[in-house]
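Table S2 (continued). Query chain:
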Amino acid sequence: MRPTCFTTRAALAALVMSGLAACSEPPAPWQQESYVFGTRVELKLNAATPQQAQQAAAAVLAELDRLHRLLHPWQPDSDAGRLNRALASGQPYRPSPELLELLRSGQALEARSDGLFSPAIGRLVALWGFHQDTPASTAVDMTALQALVASRPRLRDLRISADGEVRSDKRTVQVDVGGMAKGWALDRARRQLQTAGIRSALLNIGGNIMALGQKADGTPWQVGIRHPRRNEAMATLPLHDGEAIGTSGDYQRHVLRDGRRHCHLIDPRDGNSDCHLQSATVLIAPASDAGLRSDVASKPLYLDGPGLAARHARALGVAGWLLIDGQGRAWLNPALAARLHWRVTPDSITETGNG
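Corresponding output:
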């Protein structure tokens, strides 16, 4: 495949890469796009030769496609699909090493987020229709929803044995790792590129972005944070080696019901899918799980809003955060404020929290 410049389609991701016109400036990074995990994947690689970059990019995309097929919660022949059938029938199941790793990480992150991030609410996701590519605008069965919420399905309900067998006595648990798989795959892609000898790259899996090294000219990679109501970047910031950034927004997957906007970010506490914020962005410092936490940590901040953002940020190791509320006002911590460059300045900007 020949290297290509990113097109404006990249703006559909929660985060958009800036500096797209630089494709004509030497040395140009190898750039490639694909569609995996139900979202756009974008790779920018600097390598010793175009062949090295092409081979590394192809290997990463092939692995992402394999993981997508393995972990898809709504495909009956996937590993996650087989796990969910076993859980629904009260039977034990031995998942793949990849899914097992996600389940164990998910249990730990569920606890750290006070249960606001929970990959066990697949049945709630299905009730709202967000398991489909195009959610239906039909009414939700509120009686079924209330009964499901009352049963409190959580990932902690899974019992995982030392040899990797998974079982649960609570049959309302349905695993959906969609809220963490992209970030987890980002960490794996980074390690895969490093093993292939790539030291400079920018990886974007559905708006979860990680920097590997610097650009070829020695300057940091620049990324943009999408404006939740416009098809453009609201702000930009430099992303340093090993850092990851991710956004959850009400614009990504939503549906209008009875004149109200409902989004895929469902509150496990009450099953509510109302869109209270427009978006929540988190910046994660370099770590072996930076990509994973860039995917997970935005959800609790989105659900609980500015008042509890600093608390969730501390619990989940978030270095910087930005919330855009329902009125388009910005709330962010000082650490991110010091690095952010506004392109579209909100009417109100409030710095709050520590760091």
